[in-house]
TrEMBL record:
Species the sequence originates in: Nakamurella flavida
Lyase listed as a keyword: yes
Listed name of the protein: Aromatic amino acid lyase
Keywords recorded for this protein, A-Z: Lyase
Gene3D superfamilies associated with the record: Fumarase/aspartase (Central domain)
Pfam family, one: Lyase_aromatic
InterPro entries referenced in this protein's UniProt entry, alphabetically: Aromatic_Lyase (IPR001106), L-Aspartase-like (IPR008948)
GO MF: ammonia-lyase activity
Amino acid sequence: MIELGTGVLTGAQVGRIARDRESVALADGVLDRVAVAHREVLRLAGERAVYGRTTGVGSTLTVPVEDDPLRHQHRLLASHAATGGPAHPPEVVRAMLAVRIEQLAVGASGVSPPVLPALVDLLNSDELPSIGRFTSLGTGDIGALARIGLALPAGVLGPGDAMPLMSSNALTLGAAALAGLDLDRLLAAAVAVAGLSAAGLHASPEAFDPGAVGPFPGPRQVAAVIFPLLVGTTGGPERRVQDPYGLRTAAQTLGLAVDAAGELRAVIAALVGAGLENPAVLDAGTPRARVVHHGAFHALHLTAALDGAAAALARAAAGSVNRLDMLCRPDPLVGATENPEHWADWESGGPVTRPYLAAGPATSSGLMGLEYVAGAALGEIRAAAVPAGLQTLEVGLGVEQDAGFAPLAARQLAESVRAARVVLAVELVAAVRALRLRAVRPGVALAALLDSSGVFALPTGMQDRDLTGDLALAEDLLGTLAGHPFADGRPEYR
């Protein structure tokens, strides 16, 4: 049971609620806070206009509500409940509900107290409405939350509750939290896979020396994992004076993504815990109580953090493809120019100089086909890294002039993470084959990683064959690598 309304809702908790269907409950004191704010907004609405409660919305914000407040509320919900396109996965809807309950529990919306227990019941029962993908522009997930309002039992929503329920980016924040959680796990695996590739290429540990990775936390964290994997590891070709960028800058390319993921986590946590309602009831229960109309809900920081994470992941994925190229070359610096008669038979245990880590006849293709798989996935990652924040749109007859497209940014990051799993799986297949072919003798840290991760469960056969099954198994192994011993105690990888 996860308590909502404590002021802290982590991405990991959102994941447990959304994906593991863990039940939720309201923390002590939540309903008291909500009741105080509700009483204040009812009092203040008798003294001044309150958007969506005593007025229309959008371009009708100057028009007072003159009919029955409950009919006005129903019209608001019904008129804003349209969504289009394929439905969001149920886990995204559950994440949205968890975030919205946490936001409302802050006590700034003015919503009536019965709404929160009803939302908790809806989430725990998992009887959720279908919500189409196309509904939000980053100015509030109005359509999605309107559908939630229509799914609540009759009589739960009181007069004026429609706007306080709908005025939130909860759907986008929930989707962003899940994408960020997947990104964290992917990066934890990516660091381990890069370490395996570095070992298979007999990379110099100097580029991962703690004193040589620069001032930023991400590269330092990556180097702290990879450096011990290379220390004491022997075998393979002679180490170079310095390695190509795919190896030498791995701490920086992966570290940038680690830092971007950390920034995304911080932005999501701040927005979920802030209760940025519009209008907001501030200082409820004090002489300073007031209703404020504002733009702090505008999701530009979220869009920027999502775009930044997608761009950094694209750079990290390019680094993975660079290492794949190195793994597939007979010599990472010379290229595939040697004559076939100079290639050693990998079964003899001699030095390996076969292109694409191939075995068998001289015309064998080895891992050549996997280059195309990784390249196709990289193309999607790069396309998804085009900043959603570059877009804008004017809606509401000029009232809403700067849509930020945070929902698009969240979808792009989620799609990028899915494609990056394929790129990483390809690198893992190649790295494990290189470790086998080049008879690498692991040091203590690398041996521990190999034992705990189970990566040698990948098939040993190296003759030309269909590698689709190898890739599927490699993707499954990424989950194990994400929990490798060197990630223990490192929240940036969670």
